[in-house]
DNA sequence: CATCAAGATGAAAACGTTTTCAAATTGATT
DNA sequence: AATCAATTTGAAAACGTTTTCATCTTGATG
């Protein structure tokens, strides 16, 4: 019926010491005589005392909780990052408050505010754009923040990513080298810097080096969804694209199936390279060639970086780029 | 530099009222004269006051946070549930502390304990088995708990699921009706009641009604992973199975590709029905026929149910079964 | 105009920790 | 035996709210 909670005070009384001493042994403070420590530990055991983390948070101003803002857990790419984040967080004794933002600016701001209200010790932000409004909130927050799989156009926020520009350039070059003159660029919103400023740049660079004229008819801006990809086939055909680099694996799977269902053969009639190397690439047939990214590690490193900031350690570099690669599977010849 | 936090006390002073009154307006308590309310609100605005949720939690014993224990966010099935949970949680102003358990009993208990320490108002548990140890912890916790996509063998914990037994029976019948005499049953660990007591039971019932002898050579116990499925092909062939019901979509995709890669044709040489109807079923080729489950809704309903418990409302039924179906796609004839 | 009930307010006590600072104890050194 | 520094301890003040009472206002009613 009752709350029936055992408090630090109960332990202190039973062990015949002060709350301060109990607090010390609970927190592993070395300034406690071994004998007293044992005595206290025994009482804790006997009473089954569990420190109240909320009270602790209030007194110490540390909640050992970090906020994670994710566009959609349901997206394999982001959930892979999230897994990396959570594992490292757990390793450092933090918990994760996870919230979906749907990349909706208003929701992002609102979520950020409740996270701050809950006094999280830090935040990992995923998403594609850091809106001005969001940046303002970030600034106001004294709370450390790290971006994961998310570029900051102004380069002032700590983040961990791969070199999207170079990766896409390499992928496109790969496609061109095999004779494709019309390579489509398919991504999410070009309002997102990650697409507009990084991936598209790589695309253009590859074209330029190959002496191919840039044609914005070949650039497709869409949602990161399977359906969206599937519906793209007629448009791709009408511009005569014979290959594509695609910014998301689910989207890529959609494109591939759309093309295949239209009777074309991948990779003989149409080659494609996707971007995230999630497990989906191996599940579909043909398996998708992909830019490889250390997904789990991006999350893990971001979280690790965050722990440093929360600990006031100096981090060598604020902006870390993890290695990428190109994995040939069956959607390229 | 400094914490620079505006407290309720500052607001009270500036507005020339007591903390109690500020608290009242912040919490929408109607017992405040409109004029004072406005005065307070203005000060709050001017000072940009944000209530500290931790202090609030300590004083009110409510954290508006619920814990979610998930085997692995990276699994499409679970992340779909998680999404439903989070959306409803947000709707009711709760936040989610999300932790991966890997279905590891020790980790589950440990995670549960830290959630309790953090004074979450409730818990949604996903996973396949509720171990004895876990049940003990659950009992000790005064905190309301709801299972999502997870059966309680003893039927005493609130949960939301579909009728796995009936669903599997129907799927197997479907396969048998089309002439398959040797239908394999492929699931995760049979230590999990969901497989052992529910799905397998449905499988047996279908066989029985069709007058086919149960043969445990046709029962495959494995991991819920793509790889595990892929490796199953030789074993399936050696027992002469011509069809299978499979307990997880990633696993099913693995089985299908294993079979296909071995040169067989799905569905002509081998038919299969999977269980979770995640978006993966539509991404692979052939598209997988599946038992359908309202994934998102399972999570959503579980969370909704939890809010009732947290609110001490009486819930009509503790154990809710959502409707399932059978979706014919291209892995069955 | 006295009376009362209802409506607004405030003082202060929780809530369960951590942390600061001073006091008490210890033990080694002279 | 006296001294001093280190080591252990405890008292009490935070931490920033909510909540319980009691008190004070109000305005209507007789």
Automatic annotation (TrEMBL), chains A, B:
Claim: Transferase is one of the keywords in the record: no
PROSITE patterns referenced in this protein's UniProt entry, alphabetically? HTH_LACI_1, HTH_LACI_2
Which chain regions cross the lipid bilayer? none
Its keywords, alphabetically, are: Activator, DNA-binding, Repressor, Transcription, Transcription regulation
| A GO molecular function held by the record | transcription cis-regulatory region binding
Q: Which domain of life is it from?
A: Bacteria
Q: Look up the signal peptide feature and give its range.
A: none
Q: Where is the HTH lacI-type domain positioned along the sequence?
A: 6-60
Which NCBIfam families does its entry note?
A: ccpA (TIGR01481)
PANTHER family per record: ARABINOSE METABOLISM TRANSCRIPTIONAL REPRESSOR, LACI-RELATED TRANSCRIPTIONAL REPRESSOR
Physiological role: Global transcriptional regulator of carbon catabolite repression (CCR) and carbon catabolite activation (CCA), which ensures optimal energy usage under diverse conditions.
Q: What is this protein called?
A: Catabolite control protein A
**Source organism:** Secundilactobacillus collinoides (Lactobacillus collinoides)
């Amino acid at each position: 019926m009752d709350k029936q909670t055992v408090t630090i005070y109960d332990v202190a009384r039973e062990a015949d010491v002060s709350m301060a001493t109990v607090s010390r042994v609970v927190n592993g403070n070395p300034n406690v005589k071994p004998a007293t420590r044992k005595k206290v530990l025994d009482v804790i055991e006997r009473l089954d005392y569990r420190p109240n983390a909320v009270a602790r948070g209030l007194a110490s101003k540390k909640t050992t909780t970090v906020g994670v803002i994710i566009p959609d857990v349901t997206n394999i790419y982001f959930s892979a990052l999230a897994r990396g984040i959570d594992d490292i967080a757990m390793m450092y004794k933090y918990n994760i408050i996870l919230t979906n933002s749907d990349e909706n600016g208003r929701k992002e701001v609102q979520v950020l505010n409740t996270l701050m209200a809950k006094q999280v010790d830090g935040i990992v932000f995923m998403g594609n754009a850091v809106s001005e409004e969001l940046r303002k909130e970030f600034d106001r927050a004294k709370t450390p923040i790290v971006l994961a799989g998310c570029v900051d156009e102004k380069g002032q926020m700590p983040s961990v990513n791969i070199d999207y520009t170079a990766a896409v350039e390499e992928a496109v070059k790969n496609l061109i080298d095999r004779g494709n003159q019309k390579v489509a660029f398919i991504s999410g919103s070009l309002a997102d810097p990650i697409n507009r400023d990084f991936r598209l740049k790589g695309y253009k660079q590859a074209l330029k080096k190959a002496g191919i004229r840039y044609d914005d008819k070949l650039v497709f801006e869409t949602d990161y969804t399977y359906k969206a990809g599937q519906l793209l086939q007629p448009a791709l055909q009408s511009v005569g694209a014979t290959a594509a680099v695609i910014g998301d694996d689910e989207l890529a799977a959609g494109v591939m199936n759309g093309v295949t269902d239209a009777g074309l053969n991948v990779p003989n009639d149409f080659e494609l390279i996707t971007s995230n190397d999630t497990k989906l690439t191996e599940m579909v047939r043909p398996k998708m060639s992909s830019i490889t990214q250390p997904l789990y590690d991006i999350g893990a490193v971001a979280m690790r970086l965050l722990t440093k900031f929360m600990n006031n350690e100096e981090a060598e570099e604020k902006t870390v780029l993890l290695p990428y690669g190109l994995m040939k599977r069956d959607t390229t010849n």
